[in-house]
Amino acid sequence: MANMVLATLVQGTGAHPASWLRTGSTVDASLDIDFYIDAARICEQGKFDLFFIADTPGVRTDNLQAWSKYPFYTNVYEPLTLLSAIAGATKQIGLGGTVSTSFFEPYNVARMFVSLDHLSHGRAAWNVVTSADDYAARNFGLDRLPPHDQRYERAKEFVHVVKQLWDSWEDDAFVHDRASGLYFDPAKMHVVDHQGKHFSVNGALNIARAPQGHPVIIQAGASDAGKEFAAETAEIVFASDVTFDKAKLFYDDLKGRLPKYGRAAGDLKILAGMAPVVGATAEEAEAKFQDLQRLIHPDVARMRVGRDLEVDLSGLPMDEPIPLELIPEKANFHQAYFNQIVAMIRSGMTLREISLEYERGIATVRGTPQQIADHMEEWFAGGVCDGFMFIFYTMPGLLRDFVEMVVPELQRRGLVQIDYSGDTMRERLGLSRPAHPHAAPAAGRAAVPALATSD
Ligand SMILES: Cc1cc2nc3c(=O)[nH]c(=O)nc-3n(C[C@H](O)[C@H](O)[C@H](O)COP(=O)(O)O)c2cc1C
């Protein structure tokens, strides 16, 4: 059996809404490059496969009363700029960043990720998102985000064009032959000519093919459109179910969609979300978590639930249930998160209870190193995931605890790698390198099949 894939999403002082309030936290961590580099190096000590930076290109401009108490994706670096700096300070860990298909053009994105792949020697990964907030939309000439399915339709064409651009050059196109004076072989340049519903591109990328052939593609859609898109294009998926049974359904559903696109189960790694809180004893771990939970301000609690429910909850009493008539008919942003909250409201929980128990696609697992390793082993061996996407509620504290206490236990059980192998992120993950469509037939199948029409 392949090793578990270990990935982590990193943001400032930690992923908990109150992490920055702890005494002694590095309050300006979100713009401290040394802080990120230290974190990435700790991840490399733990032989993590992926260091991931999430993003949305915008910031909230209303409800500042609550927002100003919760620095979630506020005062952050643009991901690829940050990852480029981290590339120079690390050697083996994969470097993933989010770029939205709703607000960019394929040419920019194709170019950015090939650049990162070259300067990291084959460690770049693109998290393809369709974005989920109107604050970002308003920065790009739109009043609101287009509807969910339209965003996925655009995303599908977007990725198709990006992959074609990634094949603008064959792997050995740049011959740099002083004797003949030939810098590149013109026969190995392939101009993209795409005229589609959303994009029109006629040209070639101005950078050589990526060391990985194509940077690795990540996706995290949980809706039907999202899963279909992932089945067609993604190589890593961040899953967002917090119970074993639901995660199993998601895993089987998504893997079951792969054959339709000529893909095998091993071509896609599904990572379960998890927030590990480790302690020397179960009580110590629980106390670490509750100390953070106690620090959440009620305004922030209302805002976090309201954001994913897509309703303004400011002013609602914390110790009463959210009125059923406030539930919108359907979600336009994150369907999986929305469904989780709606289920909690329908079960009669109060706003305070929901705010403390709602897990944004990530299960909090607290306990001793053995208990956390047991949980991970159960999910992995139970065919629910190929690995884990962690968030750490405090940084670098809980990350370091995990690397020092849980990773050795996982290594002892033979579940994770003891050291890195292979030259690129793809090789380390056991993902095949896309052959160039014009390369000699022996090199493998074409990297970019024709754009399937949406059904
Ligand atoms: C671990 C993880 C990381 C994510 N990172 C981002 C991100 O950086 N930017 C973003 O707009 N959405 C992000 N998402 C949200 C997903 O892209 C997706 O919108 C969400 O899971 C809802 O699925 P749907 O779009 O199919 O409805 C992330 C989701 C997960 C589980």
TrEMBL record:
This protein's record includes keyword Oxidoreductase: yes
InterPro entries membership: Diverse_substr_monoxygenases, Luciferase-like_dom, Luciferase-like_sf, NTA_MOA
Composition bias type Low complexity, residue spans: 437-455
Keyword Flavoprotein set for record: yes
Luciferase-like domain segment(s): 28-384
Gene Ontology molecular functions: monooxygenase activity; oxidoreductase activity, acting on paired donors, with incorporation or reduction of molecular oxygen
Alphabetical UniProt keywords: Flavoprotein, FMN, Monooxygenase, Oxidoreductase
Residues noted as binding FMN in the record, renumbered to the chain: 55, 98, 148, 152, 223
Chain spans, region Disordered: 432-455
Similarity remark: Belongs to the NtaA/SnaA/DszA monooxygenase family.
Name of the featured protein: Monooxygenase
